[in-house]
Amino acid sequence: MLQAFAKAFGQLDDPRVLRVLGFSVLLSVGCFAGLWFGIGILLATTNVLTFGWLELVLDLLGGLATLVLTWLLFPLVASCFVALFLDRIAVAVELRHWPGLPPAPGLPWREALASSLRFLALLVVVNLALLVLLLLPPVYAVAWYVANGFLLGQEYFDLVALRRLRSERVRTLRARHSRELLAMGVVAAFLASLPLLNFLIPVVLTAAMVHRFETWRRAAA
Question: Domains in the chain: how many in total?
């Protein structure tokens, strides 16, 4: 697993990978800018309390909550956009580290888009549900890393594996390596919570997952 991540970080200088990374960051920034301004307008135009100072406190807390959620969810939303360009990353990794592979059938863009939207919806629901644990910060932190790590590991493996295998074999491989997938997802979620690295993790996890998938697929052959 660590070797896969090391190879993934080592390929960040690949022009094809850099282009995908740039697209992903730009799309994610645009998405969160819209979300930030939308929530700001909503708080500014909604008067749920009759006392002005209480309304001001509510607006301030809403802004802080938006900032925190934006920071935590940024790499996860970026992951949804990377799914649209995943095949380009996977091809770049295969050409450098797995030469001789035949072209992958890949995922049709409609399936990739549908998968991205489902993943985004699930991320939002799970992370909103986790907010009830904010009163217990240590519990919230552990739950956040485990829950989002699980989702990241499952989603990225499926997207990478479905480029080359049918869903039945993908489910079999996923079940066989579920613990390592969880570990990879948790590592990615942790790195994604760190400054600057959160911009890189969606691309890095995609590349790392290609390495693990090819290793597991060949071992099972």
Answer: 1
